[in-house]
Structures are given as structure tokens and as C-alpha cells.
Amino acid sequence: MRTIVYKLGGSLLDLPRLGERLGRVVAADSDCQPLVVVGGGPIANIIRDWDAAHGLGEERAHWLALESLFVCEELVLSVTPGTRRVASRAEAEKAWAAGIVPVLSTAEFVRAEESEQSVALPHYWDATSDSIAGWVATIWPADELILLKSTDLPVGVGIGEAAERGLVDRCFPAMSDTISKVGWLNLRAASSSLPVWLRTASPRSIS
Questions:
Q1: How far, CA to CA in Å, does 159 sit from each of 38, 163, 171?
Q2: End-to-end CA, the chain
Q3: Is-contact 123 103, C-beta < 8 A?
Q4: pTM of the entire structure?
Q5: Is 205 a domain residue?
């Protein structure tokens, strides 16, 4: 069965009826195993400010930002029925078998997996949670990655141009390079449940 990583943008954490909308989207494709990765939004921005004020350094700030995702994940778990926190593929498999949508404990997963992978996750601010979700989808591996955002994707924009425009971070094209299908869905558009595809071509192989 296909695995789809849904990256929930941090800008959506204040969305009314967030759990209902997220649940509807992940249930729309019954022939898949969904995995939710949650972004940091305003909490990550606070850590950026701390780094600027205190000179934490990008490595330390990277881990603080990752650890802060726990709070965002807890919010999503609290408002979305039928979800469960998972930190590994085995835990995700158990959730899927029980008909539960797994929400990834991103910091735990990164700490456990990063040293074992040939694909390096950047530890600097140019790599936001979009790139982290791309890395997760790459090394899981997942069949698709769908970015849940607060705005529509401009017509005709692909991954490279999206990075140039700041719609995704600068590292995202590289972090999503081996994923065959990458989509974009404006979760604030209540009537929309089908993604716009940034890529549907063959992916590059992991070297």
C-alpha cells in the first residue's frame, strides 16, 4: 500500500476546525497509509529570534526548533480524533493496522535515524520543516509527499520556482529530489481536498 507523508504547515495551527479538515484530507485517499509531519510555525520563529538575540548558532537552534515541534504535534493530536504519536516505522505500522493516523514525533525520529542515513539533513535555517518532511519522506521511504499550506500554489509553479519564491525553503528541492509525487494543498480552502502536483515525474535515485 502507498505511503503518503502529509506535511502540516505551522501556519495552519490556528486554523478553526483544524482537526476536522486534516482528518478529511488524510481520509480522502482510502488506498494509502498516511503519516503526518507537523511544522513549527510561530514557535520556530521564536527560536529564530532567540538565535538572533543570543547567538545560539545554527546547530543548537536546529535542535531547539526540532524539539519545539513536540508542542505543535501535541496540539494536532489533541484536536484530531483517530491520531497517535509515533516515533518509528514499527509504531506507524501498528497505528495503520489499528486504523489510526500516525503523527510523527519528528525530533525522536530524526535522532534515531539521522546517523544511519546516506541522505544528510541540513542543520541550518535554510532548511525548515518543509525540508525535514522531505527528508522523512525520502528515507522512510514514502510514495508521495503532500504539503498542506495556507495559500494556493501559483499556477505553473514547480518545486524549483517555489523555492525561489520562498513558498518552500531553499533546501526543499534537494530534500524532495527522490520523491516521485510532491503535491500542494491549501487547507484553508474548505472546498478543496485534491492537491496540485509540483512533481509527478520519475524521481532521482538515492546515491
A1: 20, 6, 11
A2: 25
A3: no
A4: 0.93
A5: no
| Identity of the residue numbered 186 | N
What pLDDT shows up at residue 122?
86
Residue 206 domain flag: no
Which residue reads 516505522 in cell numbers? 89
Cell numbers 495503520 correspond to 96
Task: Tell me which residue of 132, 154, 155 sits closest to 145, measured CA to CA.
Answer: 132
Instruction: Identify the domain containing residue 195 by its residue range.
Output: 2-199
Q: How far apart are CA 197 and CA 49, in angstroms?
A: 33
* Count of domains for the chain: 1
Quickly list H helices, the chain.
Answer: 18-27, 42-54, 58-79, 89-97, 106-113, 129-139, 159-164, 172-175
CATH of the domain at 136: 3.40.1160.10
Three-state DSSP state, 2: strand
Measured between alpha carbons, how far is 133 from 198 in angstroms, rounded to an integer?
15
Q: Cell 489533541 belongs to which residue? A: 78
Q: How confident is the model over 139-198, as pLDDT tens digits? A: 999 999 999 999 999 999 999 999 999 999 999 999 999 999 999 999 998 666 789 999
Helix (H) or strand (E) holding 199: strand 196-199
The 10s digit of each residue's pLDDT in 40-86 is 988 888 998 999 899 989 889 888 999 999 999 999 999 999 999 99
Evaluate whether residue 207 is within a structural domain.
no
- Going 152 to 48 to 36 to 73, the CA torsion angle's sign is negative
Within a domain: 204: no
